Amino acid sequence: METVETVETVDTARPQPGDWQRRLRARDPNLRVHLIGIGGAGLGPIATVLLELGVQVSGSDRQASATTARLAELGAAVHVGHSAARFASLPAEERPDVVLISSAVDAANPERAAAAALEIPVVKRSEFLPALLAGRRLIAVAGTHGKTTTTAMTVQVLRAGGIDCGYIIGAEAPVFGSAAAGSAPEFVIEADEYDRMFLGLKPEIAVVTNVEWDHPDCYPTPSSFRRAFMQFTDGVERDGTVIACADDPGAAQVHAYAPTRGPRWITYGLGEGADLRAGYVKTIPGGGSEAEISWWNAPAGVLQLAVAGLHNVRNALAAVAVGLNCGMEMATALAALQSYRGSSRRFEWKGEAHGVTVIDDYAHHPTEIQATLAAARERFPLQRIWAVFQPHTFSRTQRMLYRMGESFEQANEVIVLDIYAAREVDDGSINARDLVASSPHRAIRHIPTLVEAARFLAQHVAAGDVVITLGAGDGYRVGELLLAQLGSKGAA
User: What span, in angstroms and rounded, lies between the C-alpha atoms of 258 and 374?
Assistant: First the structure.
């Protein structure tokens, strides 16, 4: 009997498994990427980089925003709302080659489900970013607190040194925005630990600002959180560098378990023994800081910052350390930081009306709240400070209830809004009233809604007061509503 050799045929017109990664690495201008949650802090900057690289970008989000409007201006096809029919209505050759989803997009999302049904690859950032950043000298900034500010400071330092780095930041910086492709090999990225995104990165330089348990919905125990950071630093290139805060016990623990044959570690901080140290820190007029810098125990210059708080001194040290590792002079790195003015939702001045100052900050973890309010007290030592806090997620509020309640010490008055659910469902086990009841603060109250809180403030604030909105949700709108009400009151 004659044998017939069978040959497997491949439909070259249909994308093959892994095809999108190859094409993304090659910067194929015909590659189509769809982002579900394109207006968010996680995906918006990625979309910007893709557009600058010439990739075809589309995306959707629940609502329009300044981010979606800007991306549309850059050439993205942006849709408001999620539709199951969005992909099916397109000819096969016009459908996305890959769909990128944010961590908040669950399996029930109609576009995610439709993409899966059409066999379009659906991936998270941890899988997408290695292809996007292939061939770059990756600088990843990780840590429970301070990632955004440290990333923005690092970009400012490198660019001042003539390095046209690419970057992805989780907030808008006043001068350079939140993202750019850049022309230099260096690429700076805010390495988010949520959903273990940062474990997909293989940086040459890694920064660890601190390691303090957070995201209990993702990391059920402090040890599981710490292990993730150990994995992250284990992923640094063997001839690379880890830059870690010597003042932080969690970062020190990660350092202690690091293999001896791996990347070198450089420490920074305010205490004795740090490789890069800030000493004799003092507050300067306007609420900034000044400190004497030593490098390997030798005097190296003076750091001057316009942003307040010891936490920002540490963030600045990390950025300087990255600059030094990229071949910059100490004087250049220090000078670059003098003009740093912060980023959106990081002690951001929102406005003033009738002598009432409104500031917004992203702080949503007890440690962040304490640091922000300490900086506020340093900046406004004699004023009455109102803290308006919106708890973020039920799981974090429940697991950190008592620490949250204790974090408002530097505020004179505290308002707690209803919990911002984010990606979670309210099962009735925790609410904002529980936080108020657990707090030792003598002037803390629960006001459920943004509108009610703004109305209460408008009736009770006085000239000289400072109102600080805190949280990762939409609580910042209380400040905006308050300013509008005070303004209209003045006009009348």
Answer: 33
One of 3.90.190.20, 3.40.190.10, 3.30.1780.10, 3.40.50.880 is the CATH number of 348-491, namely 3.90.190.20
CA nearest 396: which of 218, 230, 147?
A: 218
Q: What tens digit of pLDDT does each residue of 165-218 get?
A: 999 998 888 778 899 999 999 999 999 898 888 999 999 999 999 998 888 888
Of 222, 190, 183, the closest CA to residue 206 belongs to 190
Is 149 strand, coil or helix?
A: helix
Contact status, residue 195 vs residue 103, Cβ threshold 8 Å: yes
Separation between Cα atoms, residue 61 and residue 57, nearest integer Å? 14
Active site residues: 147-148, 190
Q: What is the pTM of this model?
A: 0.81
Instruction: Provide the CATH number for the domain formed by 19-125 in this structure.
Output: 3.40.50.720
Residue 489: count of CB within 10 angstroms of its CB? 11
Nearest residue to 268 (alpha-carbon basis) of 236, 233, 294, 289: 294
Domain locations in the chain as residue ranges: 19-125, 135-337, 348-491
How many Å separate Cα 169 from the centre of its chain? 6
Does the domain at residues 135-337 carry the CATH identifier 3.40.30.10?
Answer: no
Distances (CA, A) of 324 to 20, 241, 321, 330, 411: 36, 11, 5, 7, 38
Which residues 6+ apart lie within 8 Å of 287 measured at CB?
Answer: 306, 307, 308, 375, 378, 379
Task: Find all residues with CB under 8 Å of 220, minimum gap 6, and list them.
Answer: none
Residues whose CB falls within 8 Å of the CB of residue 182, separated by 6 or more in sequence, listed in order: 164, 165, 166, 167
Give residue 25's identity as a one-letter amino acid code: R
CA-wise closest residue to 165 among 297, 157, 248: 157
Instruction: Write out pLDDT tens, residues 433-467.
Output: 999 999 999 999 999 999 999 999 999 999 999 99
